[in-house]
Known about the structure:
By secondary structure, this protein is mainly beta. The protein has two helices and ten strands, in the order E-H-E-E-E-E-E-E-E-H-E-E.
Amino acid sequence: MDGNFYIPIRWASKQLGLATKWNEERKTAGLTTPSAYLEWDLERQTVSVNGASMPLKETSFISEGALLVKLSWIAQYLQVQYAFQPNPSRVDLAYVQQMDTAYRESNYSEDT
């Protein structure tokens, strides 16, 4: 659509082990990513990044009940890299999860 590639946010968050949360009362969808908190306000037609709002139409749209988000916009927050493949038409996503601690080869005391 419009020369951009969009992905369903629920699918993307599930693939990365993140949880999209729907707030029925406020009609918002929220997602905590590795680098930001994103919230889509469907009634106001806005999306917020750590509280700073912008028009929803710049980043996302609803299709058949699914929230689709522009990959080039959301990739930075999901910390994914992507590559468009023309034949067959597809997108490859790469995600490397950050470690909480440094990797240790073994428990051997001389191994640092």
